[in-house]
Amino acid sequence: MFNGQEKTFEHYLKSKELFKNDDIKNASSEIDIAIALDSSNLDFQIIKSKIISETDNYEQAIKILKWLSSRNFKLDTVNFNIGSCYFSYGIHFLKQNDEDKANDSHEKALTYYNYTINSNMQYFYAHVAKQEVLHNLNRYDEALVVLNNAINLFPDNILLICNRGVEKIYLGDLTGAMTDLNKSIQSNKLDLFGFASAYRFRGNLYLKKGNADEAIKDLTSSLKYNPKDETVLVIRAECYKEKGLKDKACEDYRKAADLGFVSIYKTIKEYCTD
Asked: Is the pTM higher than 0.85?
């Protein structure tokens, strides 16, 4: 019996590792084996939902997570993951230029992130996610409040300083934004995603200040950390366009479109057609 349980857990751990390395197909196969061997382990269902959400099947992932919630299983983690599914669903709709559905999904994400924080104030990523969803809802002042409250809870976390810099851009405090973004980049304490975000928004800030050359440098750095960020490609394309570098601009527009930024095809048609 023990050997059977050990083998089942090996499949679970292998699935988590494969998922971490973006091998979604094999991660799915491994977790399905684990569930077949032990359908009573609800932790297996959490990783199953995460894998499903990576295939953009958010409704099925949410269905699994809400079932776990009905059983009062790890409510902070489950609610956070439901929020993340709705958040990703919202991003999906934004790419499709469906703002109403995007906003509806983001509002639902916000609800579940609040559930997470209410049940576990120390759930760090719920604070970060709440700020991000408020940002996408254009509620920048509320996002800044969330960040400042989180900084009080986690004073040594540099990601919060980075994200605060982002919100300051949208609130018009460009000097304060540059200070926070410089501090976060110079700290060398961000993870890959954090560096990608910091360089992206500092690049955007340079563009707002009319410095396309510095913007391109930062956006290129951002893409080194996250080469599949279609939004960064579009922003860099705008920088190239401003400098009259049509070929480079159109190359970035097309890369962004291939990554799912379908609304940019209108620009490609108008600007890149010879």
From this structure: no
